[in-house]
Amino acid sequence: MPAAGNSSVASGLRGVVTRGPVTPVCQEGVSCSAPVKHATLTFSRNGVSQSATTDDQGHYVIHLAAGTWAVRISPAGKFGYKPQNAYVRAGVMRTQNFSIDTGIR
């Protein structure tokens, strides 16, 4: 049995990084975004940084301590991404997806 205050479940985040729109005109029934392959997500908090890289489908997983983390995504392009912060709950692997704006309008 874990000691008091410890959890058998690691805390952190998992999710998908997408970019979009990928076409100037989005069509009903056709995705207007695409996964971002091999992007690097860097999570920073209290002078500590940890990174994760997306796979070929844009998925990532990272174990982080509980708290609010600032996020950088590379490459993110000149139009930015959302969200720029992520909250990690103790003992929970939360889903947090990120979206990079391509600027296509």
Structure description:
With 105 residues, the protein is mainly beta. The chain has one domain. The protein contains no helices and ten strands. It has strands at residues 12-20, 34-35, 40-45, 48-53, 59-63, 67-74, 81-82, 85-88, 93-95, 98-101. Strands 1, 2, 5, 7, 9 and 10 form a six-stranded mixed beta sheet that branches. Strands 4-3-6-8 form a four-stranded antiparallel beta sheet, with no helix packed on it. A hairpin with a 2-residue loop joins β3 and β4 (48-53). The termini are far apart. Mean pLDDT is 90; it is low at 1-7.
- Binned strand content: over 45%
Structural class by helix and strand composition: mainly beta
Question: What is the makeup of the main sheet?
Answer: 6 strands, mixed
Overall number of strands = 10
Name the shape in a single word: elongated
* Element-by-element helix/strand order: EEEEEEEEEE
Uncertain residue ranges: 1-7
Quaternary state reads single chain
Annotation field: number of helices:
0
First-residue to last-residue Cα separation? 55 Å
Average pLDDT score: 90
